[in-house]
Amino acid sequence: MRVKKTIWRPLVLGLLLGTLAGITTVTGLSFLTPGITENAIGFFGVLLLLATALGGPLSGVIGSTLFVIIVTLFGPPDMKAILSDSITFWSNVVGVGITVALVGFGYRFIFERLKMPARLLAWAGIVIGYYILLVPATIIPQYLLHGNTTSEILQAVLFGYQSYFPQAIFDIFITSLVFIALPSAYTRPLWYEPRVAPDQDDDLGQDVMEEVGYES
Fold it and tell me: Is the full-model pTM beyond 0.85?
């Protein structure tokens, strides 16, 4: 049976970028910002966001799940110790998976309606929204199941926002550079076939027609 391109491409993209996200974290490919020592900025966020933007929700869920598994098994000792707890592990798998999947739907929405460079501004909003949802989606379930008080949960959420703010800015900057550098045909979502070739950019319409099988 022939697998549709809208299935195998997101699958491969999720596996590839999810693995790379895990490797970058395991190997310590990150850096610290001045005044922030608890949470380093790394390329894992960029890779997971690109996976779900280009590959869609399926790619994002596969990539994020693989990332969490790799970090749990091979990550730094402190991260392995935290994720070895089953509640923390599954709250990260489910929380990150759900929020990163929403990014895929959001990117498709703005891709179909906005041209460059306006699309970059909307994309920045999506990334910020992703982190706004990500922090409570991963922290609240695990803190509730561990029996923490409301004040402790609130404090953890606020600290999470503080820690992830530099990461969000970094992700917006790097992913925007990728979208600018890539040819327009390679920035479209790969997880669906448009019914009508979009007039997004000068050369995008013809590229999409050829991609989805309109060529002779």
Answer: no
